[in-house]
Amino acid sequence: MRLILLGPPGAGKGTQAQRLVERYGIVQLSTGDMLREAVAAGTEIGLKAKDLMARGELVPDEVVVQIISDRIEQPDARLGFVLDGFPRNIPQAEALETMLEQKGLRLDAVVELRVDEGILLSRIEKRAGETVGGPRADDNAEALAKRLVVYRAQTAPLVEHFEGKGLLRTVDGMAPMDEVSRQIEAALAAETLSARG
Ligand code: AP5
Description:
By secondary structure, the protein is an alpha/beta fold. 57% of the residues lie in helices and 12% in strands. A five-stranded parallel β-sheet has the order 2-3-1-4-5, sandwiched between helices. Helix 2 (31-41) packs across helix 3 (44-55) and helix 4 packs parallel to helix 5 (90-103). The longest helix is centred in the last third of the chain and has 20 residues, at 177-196. It is globular, with a radius of gyration of 16 Å. It starts with a strand and ends with a helix. The site of BIS(adenosine)-5'-pentaphosphate has 30 residues, from helix 1, helix 2, helix 3, helix 6 and helix 9. Residues 7, 9-15, 31-32, 35, 52-53, 56-59, 64, 85-86, 88, 92, 123, 126-127, 138, 147, 176-177, 180 line the site of BIS(adenosine)-5'-pentaphosphate.
């Protein structure tokens, strides 16, 4: 099973990705988590990404595309993966499609978590109080506002992009977490059957 989770900051991508990992035995590939690890480790990528992330801007496409390309090659991704936070714009989606084609892999579905923007600030603020190791540098009202501007301009067009490819499955991200998981499972039931068949 190879999936993409799509949705604005705080929509619940990370939360649902972890549940999909348990449910399907696939790996979670979160560019945000990988970049935060690089920042914490002070690597070259981390140094490039640190200020952009804190401001809520995107890290350059070539950086994240290379990260994902390398990660998909790892043995633990062989059974499948859920991409969380990637792709984030049309060029990244096209790079992913080329990459998968070259590796002989197929995308099964793109799950959109649809939420009202009004809920996102309170979710982000709540998480900021819970995060192990302290709050994220971008979990504040100012950076969230920028992340939303970037989402609307660059990431939201992916909904139509994947709809056109027949891959989009939209679920209600405003529902309680267990209900969101149930809706995702139902949306993926057809893919699971075809993968088994
Ligand atoms: P990234 O780490 O991807 O962050 P994001 O997209 O802004 O998303 P979040 O992690 O904030 O939210 P989420 O949707 O995962 O929600 P969560 O499950 O945590 O990116 C961060 C930065 O890295 C970017 O701004 C950019 O700079 C850089 N970056 C990353 N990828 C990149 C790329 N591909 N290209 C370029 N730059 C890139 O949930 C949030 C909270 O809500 C939690 O407290 C959770 O418990 C709660 N919650 C979840 N679901 C529910 C529910 N159904 N009901 C109630 N509460 C819920």
